[in-house]
Amino acid sequence: METTTFEIETENRVGITHDVIGCFLCSNINIMRMEVKPHYIYIKIKSLEQRLHSRLISSIGEISGVRRIDVIPFLPSEGREDQMNTILGTVSEGMILLDQALRVQAVNRAARGMLPIPWDQLKGRPLADLWGRHIADCSQCLESGIEVLNKAVTIQRKTGETAQMVASYYPIRSETANRNQGIVIVIRDMKQISDLIQSVKSTGMVQFADIVHRSEEMARCIALAKRVARCDATIFLYGESGTGKELFARAIHYESLHAAGPFVPVNCAAIPEALLESELFGYEAGAFTGAAKGGKKGLFEMAQGGTLFLDEVAELPLHLQAKLLHAVEERAVRRVGGDKRIPIDLRIIAATNRDLSAMVAQGRFRGDLYYRLHVIPIQLPPLRERKSDIPLLASHFAGKFRRLAGRPPLSLSSQAMHMLLTHDWPGNVRELRNVIERSVYLCLEEEKELKKVHIENKATSKGTTNAVGLKERMEAYEREIVAEALKRCQSVRQAARDLGISHTALLRKVRKYGQS
């Protein structure tokens, strides 16, 4: 059926809309759709023959206050609908619109391809018919008015197969009625998520397959981590500095149900104590002098739907340990200077290089927080206890850095390998990486083999026969002093006070000597 749409520009006169409608009624013309806004009336009708069309235009033009009459392609709302339909039709995520009763009102093209029920059978049906036990997340979103992100959903197909998806729920809020009017569900299938993860892997995503190892000790750690990655239990990683705790945390995140969300690493020792609370939990506007005008999200909120990695958690002051315990138990945070409870949905992985149980016994770490975090402990072995991994790691790093240096393949001589295998590696894999990087860049360009590796030897620190300069001797001595202070003191902050330097100055020295 052909239609005609009129745009009628008018003065702002009481009753003018009634007069315009009267012209259509007098000519027995049915109005299909109509829209009114200040100074404009839009009317859609079935197309008329030319004589009737001209007569109608003439009669409307005689109405007092009518300025102009044009024929336009479609009503303003139809233009917006076409734009919205184009947008919804081109996005790759599936979208489902629900009303207040959680009945399906609309789905986009991507969602129709993912769902097992045809659209003509789905419209108007309760979501519970499709979602089953997963409807609780949807109800929670509608009642609380707070978005619920990245929840696993399993849908049963007619063939008996199941479809694995991840769903996020967003409330539709009416500002005028001050209530939630429905929900938009955004769904992604697992293949989409896998493709997305692969596309951003270069920005820091890690799989267990990326962890270079040969030893049984590391194989056992990886097997345990894989087994618990897909559950939501808190994982606690133990290990000396440089054993790869963050690498493990990233691999666990990649394998988890939170893989589509962000991975947010936090070094609790690297953030000044005065800023820790506001960095972790965020703050409201005006919470303190210098606070951002609109407030700021904390790292917990930034990790919503993903994983928060709390490295060096033993360095948290006791008063923040209490707030962390509350956040973990209540699954909610409160910003500094605010009283609003903000629900959090994330995975927590904690790590330390200290003996946390001893710290609990000494009263330096809260026992209740220890038992709340210490659900699944994984102890990463130091490099000196898995020396069978050294040749593999050394070759891996040599290949990486020779490519960065733009030089041909570079093998390790038996002499270089002997030096690597007999070193005790106090800095673990981080130190090994540092040694290989230094050795590759110092190797002559014509060399095809690393004949020696440049390892910093502690024996040269105090009166040795080796010919080293004053700078090297002073750095070796400083390294010993820093290592002893870290071993003697209860935290990095206490070690800094003991040495009479600032916290940040000590952190720079710790990173410099591979002791962080």
TrEMBL record:
Gene3D superfamilies (UniProt xref): 1.10.8.60, 3.30.70.260, Homeodomain-like, P-loop containing nucleotide triphosphate hydrolases, PAS domain
Key words, A-Z: Aromatic hydrocarbons catabolism, ATP-binding, DNA-binding, Nucleotide-binding, Transcription, Transcription regulation
Organism, as annotated: Laceyella sediminis
Stored PANTHER family: TRANSCRIPTIONAL REGULATORY PROTEIN
Pfam families registered for this protein in UniProt: AAA_lid_14, HTH_50, PAS_9, Sigma54_activat
Domain ACT intervals: 5-74
PROSITE patterns per UniProt: ACT, SIGMA54_INTERACT_1, SIGMA54_INTERACT_2, SIGMA54_INTERACT_3, SIGMA54_INTERACT_4
Protein name: HTH-type transcriptional regulatory protein TyrR
